[in-house]
Amino acid sequence: MSATADHAESLAARLGFQSEQVVQEIGYDDDVDQQFRDLVEELVGELVDEDYDDVADAVLLWFREDDGDLTDALVDATELVEDGALILLLTPKTGRDGYVEASDISEAAETAGLSQTRSVSVGKEWAATKLVTPKTAAKSKR
Fold it and tell me: Which of 11, 15, 86, 120 could form a disulfide with 58 if both were Cys (CB 3.0 to 4.6 A apart)?
């Protein structure tokens, strides 16, 4: 494995992804950062799509400003995972088409009951915000 691949895989691991996790991907389109996506997939195994009908270990959520209501998307994502799970929100960087204001992300995460831990760059066009579901949240679907 190259040093670049080691760095990228360690980025996926540092963000909270683990080997053999079930990671549900939402919002995939042809504009996503394919290199970062491939590295997450290489670490966890195959990503499952929006039609996956079981509980996932984590969610990879690609979101652009015109994708609808971010709070609704985050609330929906929390219904797909267990308590304490990782939701990685990926949004276009400042100045790119579909950019989402940091204040909008913070407000939507808080409203959805998620803890925002950090934001990092995951490619030339995309930034990731690491969100975590509360460990004690009651889930309405159970």
Answer: 86
